[in-house]
Amino acid sequence: MIRHTFVAAALFVASFAFAQDAGTAAPAGPVEPPPSADLIKKFLDYQDNGKDRGPALLDLIPCVKVDSTKGSPTQFQCIEPVGASVPKGTTVFAWLQWLCPKDGKYEDIAIQFLHEGQVRKTVDNPVAGFGRTRGWRGENMNKVGKWTIKIMRGDKELGSATVNVVAP
């Protein structure tokens, strides 16, 4: 529920900014009303006072390609998510999007890469900033089978995704 609150509020803020640039053009379809005042107030309270609550993981996307081209309109976005499977030897990125409250700095975030349930690699992934932050870490999927990417904060799992790796 809280995650939906943050996503809705973030989308509201983003759509408001874009709407100001839209000029006088008519909307392409029905205009969605803004989130409720209660939802916006919850978001603002978290944004301003949620430092002790930790960051909110908005997205974990297993990704084959992240755009790192400076100045690109899709810079820092996952532009090629993993499909049904990837061939053995493919580097897969855990692409992450967070909402970080004011003065938030979290050193206890880690990404785990597991093969068939066994942890193969753990990478520290500190999260800091204000508002939306994105990042990614990659791992070579060098064994056929089911891989799981887990995002951990201490001993609490914040999210996970699976990748099926097949023989080339």
How much helix, percentage-wise, in residues? 10-25%
Amino- and carboxy-terminal Cα gap? 41 Å
Strand order of the largest sheet: 3-9-8-5-6
Oligomer: single chain
Total of DSSP H or I helical runs spanning 4+ residues:
2
Q: Kindly state the mean pLDDT as a whole number? A: 88
What structural category arises from helix and sheet content? alpha+beta
Beta-strand content estimate: over 45%
Radius of gyration: 18 Å
Question: Which series of helices and strands comes N to C?
Answer: HHEEEEEEEEE
Largest sheet: 5 strands, mixed
Low-confidence residue ranges: 1-22
The shape is: globular
Work out the number of β strands: 9
Describe the structure.
This protein has 168 residues and is of the alpha+beta class. The protein is 20% helix and 49% strand. It has two helices and nine strands. The strands form two sheets. It has a five-stranded mixed beta sheet, with no helix packed on it. Strands 2-1-4-7 form a four-stranded antiparallel beta sheet. A hairpin with a 2-residue loop joins strand 5 and strand 6 (118-124). Helix 1 packs across helix 2. The radius of gyration is 18 Å and the shape is globular. The relative contact order is 0.18.
